[in-house]
Amino acid sequence: xxxxxxxxxxxxxxxxxxxxxxxxxxxxxxxxxxxxxxxxxxxxxxxxxxxxxxxxxxxxxxxxxxxxxxxxxxxxxxxxxxxxxxxxxxxxxxxxxxxxxxxxxxxxxxxxxxxxxxxxxxxxxxxxxxxxxxxxxxxxxxxxxxx
Length: 147
What we know:
CATH class of the largest domain: Mainly Beta
Helix content: under 10%
Low-confidence stretches: 1-7, 19-30
Strand content: 25-35%
Order of helices and strands: EEHHEEEEEEE
Structural class: mainly beta
Shape: elongated
Radius of gyration: 23 Å
Mean pLDDT: 76
Distance between the termini: 89 Å
Number of domains: 2
CATH topology of the largest domain: Immunoglobulin-like
Largest sheet: 4 strands, antiparallel
């Protein structure tokens, strides 16, 4: 079935989401909520616990990169257009296929060795350590004046 679209979006998307699928979380992410990496960050004494929802992805489809204090998580999932079910062609497909990425500023003090990600049940979890507090010296430092 062909539906009219503008800029790659179906004119009926909003109608279907509001009428048939009203529970999609539009408050935070708008109408593209289903394509976002929803993230929970919890502060602890040692650092931050991060949980990112990536349902439907395999571990090898997820990449993490640390560059100049930014941690980028990317995930890509392909979809075979010729795939058929046991009875024929698909009529509707709502599961995500494509790529997405999201970057988080974690600070220049974080190193790759500090991050130990774990992927279980569609959730990517890892810990980001806090930057160690530096003690400020309260000494007077005089500079010699020549002349």
